[in-house]
Amino acid sequence: MDIGKILGDVLGSKSSGQIGNQIRQATSGGLGGGLVGGALSGGLISAVLGSKKGRKMGGKVLAYGGTALVAGLAYKAWRDYSNRQKPQNHARDTDLASIPADSGFAPEQERGEDDVDFRLALVRAMIAAAKSDGHIDQAEHKRIAAQIEQFELGASEKAFLFDAFSADADPLAIARLARTSEQGAEIYLASSLSIDPDEQVERQYLDRLAGCLGLPGELRAHLDTQAEGARREFATR
Q1: Contact 174, 128 (CB under 8 A)
Q2: Cα within 13 Å of Cα(168), Cβ side
Q3: Chain centre distance of CA 195
Q4: Who's near 157: CB < 8 A, 6+ residues apart?
Q5: pLDDT digit string, tens, across residues 51-66
């Protein structure tokens, strides 16, 4: 299965390697300097995010940074939490790709449930969170299915996307995709970036997801700070 192609078509993002290089080369600050250099290609996630401002802003963050950015921000949140520091926004950090190899925050190397590439779990988490308010009706499903058919994907890649978009937004099922606490933090952050924080039903989905993941309240506060900071950073662009 071509994981990179799925990520590109779903998120409209560059590869994680390209994103990592951009982060390392950043000179004027995190997301603003290192990531906002390329143009959004309009990934499939945009069709699910709808028109809500909060979801669209989170979608921009995901499109520009992809799973590499989720990992970098989740790692910093985890590190601050473990060191008993107060939550702080790391969206403008220029070293988000510099994650220790043994940290547990490396989606390209991690394996998820059933020993599959963990980046697929993050894609499922993003899609489920974006669908959590039930705004996708039968007509929207048909439109998304038609868009998937247009992608130059193999049968297995298309089957994965059809399955992900047709599945219910079940926080328990999404939580089960995490094999470690670190993966749970990444799943939560990716999900948080895919919702509209002003919508009660979507906040309730995140509450249920955090409960299913067993996230400590303090760690969740750190992760929420990263999501909010990333949205604010893009709001100024």
Answers
A1: yes
A2: 5
A3: 10
A4: 1, 2, 5, 6, 151
A5: 566 666 666 677 666 7
With 0.85 as the threshold, say if the pTM is over it. Answer: no
Count the Cβ atoms, other than its own, within 10 Å of residue 36: 19
Alpha carbon distance 190, 122 (integer Å): 7
What percentage of residues in the chain have a pLDDT greater than 90?
29
Q: Which letter does DSSP use for residue 180 in this model?
A: S
| Residue 231 and residue 57 in contact, taking contact as beta carbons nearer than 8 Å | yes
Question: 211 to each of 7, 132, 171, 184, 188, how far by Cα in Å?
Answer: 27, 16, 9, 11, 10
- Nearest 5°: phi and psi at 111? -115, 140
Task: Map 17-35 to HEC letters.
Answer: HHHHHHHHHCCCCHHHHHH
DSSP string, 85-148: PPP---TT-S-TT---TTSS--TTT-B-GGG-BHHHHHHHHHHHHHTTT----HHHHHHHHHHH
Tens-place pLDDT, residues 11-45: 655 444 443 343 333 323 444 333 222 223 345 66
Instruction: HSE, CB side, 13 Å, CA atoms: give it for residue 62.
Output: 35
pLDDT digits (tens, 9 = 90+) for 74-118: 999 999 999 999 999 998 888 888 888 888 887 667 766 666 678
